C-alpha cells in the first residue's frame, strides 16, 4: 500500500508515507481537516499496546524510539 524506502539526508521515511496517506484519504473523499494523521496512528498504536502489558522496550523498537522511557512516558494513555 505504501512505499517505506528511507529518503533524504536523514533517511526519513515518514514524509513520503504522510504524503501517500494524504493522497489515499483524499481519494476516498475524507475531508482535509477531519483526517487522521500519520502521527496520530503512532499514538493510537502505542495507546493500545500500553494497557495490554506489551513490554515498553518492544514497542520502542517498533516505533523506533532510542531513549529509554519516552515510549510510555510521552506516548500511551495513562492506565486508570
UniProtKB/TrEMBL annotation:
InterPro entries: DNA_brk_join_enz (IPR011010). It comes from the Bacteria. This is Integrase.
